[in-house]
Amino acid sequence: MLTYPCRCGATLFFENVRCLACGRDCGWCDACRRVVAVEPTDNGAWRCAGQGCGATLAFCKNRTQYDACNALVDSPGSFCRSCQATTLAPNLDDPELLGRWRAMETAKRRLLYGLDTLGIGWEASNPPLTFRFPADTADEHHTTGHQDGVVTINLKEADSVERERARQRFGEPHRTLIGHLRHEASHWLWQVFVQGQREGEFGFVFGDHNRPPYAEAMPRYYEQGPPDDWQERHISRYAASHPWEDFAETAAFYLDMRAVLETVAHQFGYHPPAGDDAGALLATYQQLGVGLNEVNRALGLTDALPEVVSKRVADKVAWVHELLSQNTPAWPNGAGTGRAPAPAAGPSRRGAAGPGR
Ligand SMILES: [Zn+2]
Ligand SMILES: [Zn+2]
Ligand SMILES: [Zn+2]
Ligand SMILES: [Zn+2]
To answer: Ligand 2 mean position to 223 CA, how many Å?
Structure first.
């Protein structure tokens, strides 16, 4: 993730709604593809000012109503691209649920930023990518998962105590909102980029997803856990449960890696070697991981990059890289500095439109 200079010279961060130094209002401008300081106009609108595009804009409705977004939109009262993709939110009169939902939306904007950076047209794909953030009630329980372009994340995941409990129960090194979103969105990536198109190749790299079928593999995994040698073939324990989960875990790892490498390149000028080669990206990432983990240990935190990447896992990451970076504009040096890549039309494997928004 990048940071951006305010007109006053201070740094604007991805989530800022205001410059902490000069107090100017700011927000994400889609046309500029960055966080910009805005100036009020005479008629109550905002102008993308300074080095921005000069457009007259308004704040996303979820900012004016719930302080849950920092994007700028074309007309007052409308939702930004990210907020439009949420089809179900909890009862926002409940302050606790409101707080959890805000955390989800913030993580989701990062996920979508990453997909945009890759040039993946998540709105135009068939099905498009949409999100539901339900909260459990006394008689209604919701499962986190993905189905046909719809990502559902149970809001209890935004409760840090709950999340830590689950992390320990499942023996995971990390359990984060952005991690959940990247994992579930990766099931959608499988649907639009692999299903019915590259399944044979997929089977060669990840294993045949019909043998055993998903419905058989998952109960077995929950009963028996992963095989002892899972690290030789999988990025995580859970990835050993079934090839679909293996893909989702691997693609989520890949999205994490891109986000981290972009951040480090921008903040520290630490670029992967030239070329857009998965091996070079991975080598840089692993080298970084050694240092980052030591930094975290110095602070008593868990390892930032806990994954061990075996040769087999590196091959899977390389396949995901080839699959997902086809539409990616110049990277990493060009990322975030120009305009957003035009949303790519998704492969139209299905004739029918996906879920509406
Ligand atoms: Zn400022
Ligand atoms: Zn602008
Ligand atoms: Zn919004
Ligand atoms: Zn999954």
So the answer is: 53
Classified as helix, coil or strand, 15 is: coil
Name every residue whose Cβ is closer than 8 Å to that of residue 270 and which is 6 or more positions away in sequence: 264, 284, 288
Coil, strand or helix at 203:
helix
β-partners of residue 146 are: 151
Range with the poorest average pLDDT among 232-246, 265-279, 300-314: 265-279
pLDDT of residue 43: 86
Q: How far is the CA of 33 from the centre of ligand 3 (A)?
A: 14
pLDDT at 351 over 90: no
How close is the Cα of 245 to the center of ligand 1, in Å? 44
In this model, does residue 182 exceed pLDDT 60?
Answer: yes
What the block records as the tokens of 327 is 């539409």
**CA–CA gap between residue 307 and residue 327 (Å, rounded):** 27
| Ligand in nearest proximity to the CA of 55 | 2
Instruction: Please state the rounded mean pLDDT for residues 128-145.
Output: 96
> Cα(72)–Cα(67) distance, rounded to whole angstroms?
13
Which pTM was predicted? Answer: 0.90
Q: CB within 5 A of ion ligand 1: which residues? A: 6, 8, 10, 19, 21-22
Cα diameter, the chain: 67
Res 339 pLDDT > 70: no
Encoded tokens for 119: 């040039």
Distance of CA 26 to the CA centre of its chain: 22
Give the closest residue to 146 by CA, choosing from 248, 298, 236, 68: 248
Average pLDDT over residues 190-211: 96
Token pair belonging to 70: 């920092």
Alpha carbon distance 321, 189 (integer Å): 12
Residue ranges per structural domain of the chain: 4-82, 86-324
In the three-class reduction of DSSP (H, G, I as helix; E, B as strand; rest coil), residue 55 is classed as coil
